[in-house]
């Protein structure tokens, strides 16, 4: 690999001014901050493009294997700081911009968050793309270029309000239209045969057109491509209808195409939403597979060598239809026999599972699937027949056959996308050790027995560039002073900090950085919510998608109990706390939206009560996204990872918090187990039931009412919420939510409450031991370098893709 010499300050300055004049079209005196931001991106982009083209030329020259990562989400966040850092141009850019009266950080704030994802799934995909480039692995990411993302969250009177995320309203200087990379994607119609040839004749066709974004690896080692699809109607306007006065009908085709790329995860609680979501998943999967095959044939010429030149990774079940699409194209367009096409597909495709929740394992009503994708339905039946015959040969019983089948025959017949992905892949991986073991025991028990070598574990990781170096430069600087620069290239070198964990001076310097981050976050919270919080309080943080299994409700009930205890026992030496919540609830998820309202109702009561002033504050920060996470995580003291054991696949927030020196309070769930093993039992606070204990309690009968009524603190808190203490405008608002705890408590909120409350008091005691807390924080930073996405991608590359 050859790299260009770093440009001088004068060269960078000249590039920015030239971009301002000739691309933005502004004179320096007339330019506004957003003009300087755009010019800075253009100037930096030129440097990125040089390395992008060099990376592409090198890949073609080497003729190696490419990785193709298919994901419905890529939560990439802002790209300016990422590119500047990875190209090591911070100093030159900062000096150039200061000569014009701007700070780089000031211009970074003008970049909108790319609304291309929602939560951990999409952020993981973004980390993986950056690590693929950093490890010099040729790769494409494939997804959808959402115009409005999922939604922008506003909080009105405590309620979540969903608004369109208009991140593209002023264009996106990072992206490149690739009009030559356009493919037709069909829906509906019928399958016709002409002798031995079979042809799908769709009733509707749309065009998928590529938009590329460069992904810069660490130190500019490689620049890979994130290719996102946008949709257009083949006939955007029916002029005869328009001229006849049917202005709406004339544009119906374009509106229908545009709906495919408008919103991430349209609500699928109704038939129209289900159909749109399935159309989205097929749209981007079909365009991506066509693009992969076109590139392969262009440069290799033999379709049978596809597994040697391409590794396709399915990020969850959203792109699972790619299995059927690849078989279809190999059979119908490349003339292969079905069994050979299926074999090639299986040797090319791998699948990552991200959930054990049955409702999150996608399945589609068979009539809907067959109506939209009739040829694919035939192919899925054909795959299923081979799988079930193989199972019968191995003596599998009827119950296991029913579980293995790609078609769920119980009640409404449905197409099981997880089973399609599993049977169509050469590898099926979980994302944490516990999750992978539970996959074998639960959702894929029978498929695992049929294909015992497919399931493997690849514990998730996060990119240390964004989640330490960029979001926490102060801490990065202190670490460099303490142990040198080796950790910048290999995060596991952070382990050198272990020998210094008891160093009082180092502990003081890290504490100073933490407090500075807390001061900055406190100011941001005040600007966003109007709530004043003290940076000297313990910042207790739970930021993630709002879902009952993630148990924000457990945190909130314990907050109410703590509120009662502080008021009842003012003589005790209470630790000042700021409870910080953030996250979005799916628009149709009633209980999750109610939990957001509860957080805000509790905040309103607690924050106005002088009896707990200075001791307890509660804040719900609106519109959680990557940029907000980058502000909150470096300022956190305590990381809440309290999901019901056995229900969180991995988590990556837990890794980011620990890397930034927060202590974890959590259950033995997901990657918490591996974090505990790395940082040591004394440097983490674990509570609650294990996954086995949760399963046993559910199986043997669990009486939550007895648990609630047997715990005075829990009972008082639950009854206060249920009776309207925190909702005087609607006393019954939380009656059903609390009633669910009495009736079933599926997520074990009551069952784990006492253990959680006790663990929180342990946190209080630890916080009061300043030296001990600082030492534990340093051990966390030192021992979570293993949770780098570079390590994870290295394992994928060696074990699954065979590219290292």
UniProtKB/TrEMBL annotation:
<dbReference type="InterPro" id="IPR000811">
    <property type="entry name" value="Glyco_trans_35"/>
</dbReference>
<keyword id="KW-0808">Transferase</keyword>
<protein>
    <recommendedName>
        <fullName>Alpha-1,4 glucan phosphorylase</fullName>
        <ecNumber>2.4.1.1</ecNumber>
    </recommendedName>
</protein>
<keyword id="KW-0328">Glycosyltransferase</keyword>
<dbReference type="InterPro" id="IPR035090">
    <property type="entry name" value="Pyridoxal_P_attach_site"/>
</dbReference>
<keyword id="KW-0663">Pyridoxal phosphate</keyword>
<dbReference type="InterPro" id="IPR011833">
    <property type="entry name" value="Glycg_phsphrylas"/>
</dbReference>
<dbReference type="Pfam" id="PF00343">
    <property type="entry name" value="Phosphorylase"/>
</dbReference>
<comment type="function">
    <text>Allosteric enzyme that catalyzes the rate-limiting step in glycogen catabolism, the phosphorolytic cleavage of glycogen to produce glucose-1-phosphate, and plays a central role in maintaining cellular and organismal glucose homeostasis.</text>
</comment>
<keyword id="KW-0119">Carbohydrate metabolism</keyword>
<comment type="function">
    <text>Phosphorylase is an important allosteric enzyme in carbohydrate metabolism. Enzymes from different sources differ in their regulatory mechanisms and in their natural substrates. However, all known phosphorylases share catalytic and structural properties.</text>
</comment>
<comment type="similarity">
    <text>Belongs to the glycogen phosphorylase family.</text>
</comment>
């Amino acid at each position: 690999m050859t790299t260009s010499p770093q440009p001088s300050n004068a060269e960078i300055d000249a590039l920015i001014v030239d971009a301002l004049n000739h691309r933005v079209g502004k004179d320096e005196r007339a330019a506004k901050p957003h003009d300087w931001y755009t010019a800075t991106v253009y100037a930096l982009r030129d440097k990125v493009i040089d390395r992008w083209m060099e990376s592409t030329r090198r890949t073609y020259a080497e003729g190696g294997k490419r990785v193709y990562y298919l994901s419905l989400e890529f939560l990439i966040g802002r790209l300016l700081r990422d590119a500047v850092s990875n190209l090591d141009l911070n100093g030159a850019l900062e000096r150039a911009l200061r000569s014009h009266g701007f700070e780089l950080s000031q211009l970074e704030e003008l970049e909108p968050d790319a609304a291309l994802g929602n939560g951990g799934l999409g952020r993981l995909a973004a980390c993986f793309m950056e690590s693929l480039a950093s490890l010099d692995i040729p790769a494409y990411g494939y997804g959808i270029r959402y115009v409005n993302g999922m939604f922008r969250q506003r909080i009105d009177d405590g309620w979540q309000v969903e608004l369109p995320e208009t991140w593209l309203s002023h264009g996106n200087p990072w992206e490149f239209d690739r009009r030559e990379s356009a493919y037709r994607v069909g829906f509906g119609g019928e399958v016709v045969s002409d002798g031995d040839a079979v042809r799908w004749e769709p009733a509707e066709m749309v065009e998928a057109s590529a938009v590329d974004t460069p992904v810069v690896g660490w130190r500019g080692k490689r620049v890979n491509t994130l290719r996102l699809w946008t949709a257009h109607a083949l006939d955007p306007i029916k002029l005869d209808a328009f001229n006849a006065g049917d202005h709406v009908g004339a544009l119906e085709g374009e509106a229908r195409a545009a709906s495919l790329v408008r919103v991430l995860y349209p609500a699928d609680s109704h038939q129209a939403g289900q159909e749109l979501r399935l159309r989205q998943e097929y749209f981007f999967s079909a365009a991506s597979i066509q693009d992969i095959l076109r590139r392969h044939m262009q440069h290799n010429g033999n379709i049978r060598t596809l597994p040697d030149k391409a590794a396709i990774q399915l990020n969850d079940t959203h792109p699972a239809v790619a299995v059927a699409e690849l078989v279809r194209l190999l059979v119908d367009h490349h003339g292969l026999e079905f069994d050979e096409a299926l074999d090639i597909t299986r040797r090319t495709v791998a699948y990552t599972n991200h959930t054990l929740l049955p409702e999150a394992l996608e399945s589609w009503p068979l009539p809907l699937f067959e109506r939209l994708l009739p040829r694919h339905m035939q192919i899925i039946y054909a795959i299923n027949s081979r799988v079930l015959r193989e199972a019968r040969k191995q003596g599998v019983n009827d119950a296991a056959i029913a579980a293995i089948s790609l078609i769920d025959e119980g009640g409404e017949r449905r197409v099981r996308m997880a089973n399609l992905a599993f049977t169509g892949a050469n590898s099926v991986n979980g994302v944490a050790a516990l999750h992978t073991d539970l996959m074998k025991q639960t959702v894929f028990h029978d498929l695992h027995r049929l294909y015992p070598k497919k399931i493997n574990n690849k514990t998730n990781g996060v990119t240390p560039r964004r989640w330490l170096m960029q979001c926490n430069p102060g801490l990065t600087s202190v670490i460099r002073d303490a142990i040198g620069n080796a950790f910048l290239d290999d995060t596991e070198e952070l382990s050198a900090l272990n020998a210094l964990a008891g160093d009082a001076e180092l502990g003081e310097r890290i504490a100073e950085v933490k407090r500075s981050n807390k001061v900055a976050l406190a100011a941001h919270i005040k600007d966003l919510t109007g709530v004043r919080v003290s940076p000297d309080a313990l910042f207790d943080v739970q930021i993630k998608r709002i879902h009952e299994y993630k148990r924000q409700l457990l945190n909130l009930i314990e907050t109410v109990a703590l509120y009662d205890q502080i008021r009842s026992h003012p003589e005790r030496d209470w630790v000042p706390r700021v409870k910080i919540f953030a996250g979005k609830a799916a628009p149709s998820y009633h209980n999750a939206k109610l939990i957001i309202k509860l957080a805000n109702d509790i905040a309103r009561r607690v924050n106005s009560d002088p009896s707990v002033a200075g001791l307890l504050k509660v804040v719900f920060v609106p519109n959680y996204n990557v940029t907000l996470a980058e502000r909150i995580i470096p300022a956190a003291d305590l990381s809440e990872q309290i999901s019901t054991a056995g229900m969180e696949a991995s988590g990556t927030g837990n890794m980011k918090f620990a890397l930034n020196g927060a202590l974890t309070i959590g259950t033995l769930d997901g990657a918490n187990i591996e974090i505990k093993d790395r940082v040591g039992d004394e440097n983490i606070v674990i509570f609650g039931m294990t996954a086995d204990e949760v399963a046993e309690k559910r199986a043997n009968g669990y009486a939550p009412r007895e648990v609630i009524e047997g715990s005075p603190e829990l009972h008082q808190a639950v009854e206060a919420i249920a009776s309207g203490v925190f909702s005087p405008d609607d006393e019954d608002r939380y009656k059903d939510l609390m009633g669910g705890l009495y009736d079933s408590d599926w997520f074990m909120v009551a069952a784990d409450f006492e253990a959680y409350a006790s663990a929180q008091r342990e946190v209080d005691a630890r916080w009061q031991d300043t030296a001990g807390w600082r030492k534990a924080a340093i051990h966390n930073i030192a021992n979570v370098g293993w949770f780098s996405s570079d390590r994870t991608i290295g394992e994928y590359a060696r074990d699954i893709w065979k590219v290292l």
